[in-house]
Design brief:
Layout (H helix, E strand, L loop, with lengths): L13 H32 L6 H34 L6 E8 L2 E6 L8 E4 L1 E5 L4 E7 L4 E3 L8 E3 L5 E5 L5 E6 L12 E7 L1 H12 L8 H12 L29 E2 L4 E2 L2 H14 L13 H12 L3
Parallel strand pairs: 1-5, 4-10
Antiparallel strand pairs: 1-2, 2-3, 5-8, 6-7, 9-10, 11-12
Bound molecules: dinuclear copper ion.
Length: about 300
């Protein structure tokens, strides 16, 4: 019940750990109060007659004083966690931008060339405090990776922040938690927590240009990609494709999923996506390239898969 890569009861981060503790600690007294109330209700239904005085005691004590004190204690505890968890200090920063219906992820580098942009996947070094700057390109979205922390809205014209502090390695899942259009439910992301050295290696690889096409099929795929105008929306580092509207595809082949974690990154899913994105994801801005026949589609899929 408490397992899974998208469960707040399976915490892998400091904030999620506190939230889970809060939940379990409140659950005990809540169950106790519920049983007490059910007992009192059954007792009352049986038509027992009481002195007015005893009734008064239960109404004031059990109905006013007890809930006021209990709720104040839990509220104080909950609010005091906020200041602890939303502290200002952080080891590094990452920007996550909500788009309809995917996530743009940007790691600022010391120089512009070392900045990394990816999509729908967030890599995090275990044990570090990572400040996530949350903004949106269009409507309100909400960033939520339950195993790591609570949810924070992405609001037009604002930059919200969240500090993630992953405590164990693993593969987790996040989901947009604010209705943002027809495909709101299809807006997910994958999160990978790794050892800091592995994170640095990944980041350095992501900052490099895309590998050159190595086979005739990949070369043909690249020509078709550029010829069909895909570069107007997508960037592939080291090629003429430098669009910024859609996801950066420089290292597309290394990503575990496509279409914001809708499908595993496998050729047949990618082919379907390119052929009919709008049918698979209503309101998505990606056009359907149903003019590409099977042979051309295969070449493009092959090329994109080679972008490790
Ligand atoms: Cu983005 Cu819901």
């Amino acid at each position: 019940m408490t397992g899974g890569m998208q469960s707040m009861l399976n915490p892998a981060g400091v904030e999620a750990q506190r939230v889970a503790e809060l939940f379990w600690t409140i659950l005990g007294p809540a169950v106790f109060v519920w049983l007490l109330l059910m007992g009192a209700a059954i007792y009352g239904i049986r038509g027992q007659v009481h002195a007015r005085r005893a009734g008064h005691f239960w109404i004031v004590g059990g109905g006013v004083i007890f809930p006021t004190v209990a709720l104040l204690v839990f509220a104080y505890w909950g609010f005091s966690l906020m200041t602890e968890l939303r502290g200002q200090d952080a080891d590094r920063q990452v920007h996550v931008i909500g788009e309809r219906f995917w996530w743009r992820v940007r790691y600022p580098g010391p120089e512009a060339e070392t900045a990394v942009e990816t999509a729908n996947e967030l890599w995090l070094p275990r044990g570090e405090r990572i400040e996530v700057i949350l903004t949106t390109a269009d409507v309100i979205h909400s960033f939520w990776v339950p195993t790591l922390a609570g949810k924070v809205d992405m609001i037009p014209g604002r930059a919200n922040r969240l500090v993630l502090e992953p405590t164990r390695n693993g593969f987790f899942r996040g989901q947009c938690a604010e209705f943002c259009g027809d495909s709101h439910a299809l807006m997910s992301l994958t999160v990978r927590v790794v050892d800091p050295p592995q994170f640095e290696t990944w980041l350095a690889t992501q900052a490099e240009d895309a590998p050159l096409p190595a086979t005739p099929l990949e070369r043909r795929g690249q020509q078709l990609f550029l010829g069909a105008g895909c570069g107007g929306c997508h960037r592939i580092g080291g090629t003429l494709a430098n669009g910024t509207i859609g996801p950066d595809l420089t290292h597309f082949g290394s990503r575990p999923t496509i279409a914001a974690a809708m499908y595993p990154n496998e050729p047949e899913h990618l082919a379907r996506w390119i052929h009919a994105a709008g049918e698979l994801k209503p309101e998505a801005l990606m056009p359907s390239f149903n003019n590409l026949d099977d042979e051309k589609l295969d070449a493009v899929v092959n090329y994109l898969g080679s972008l490790q």
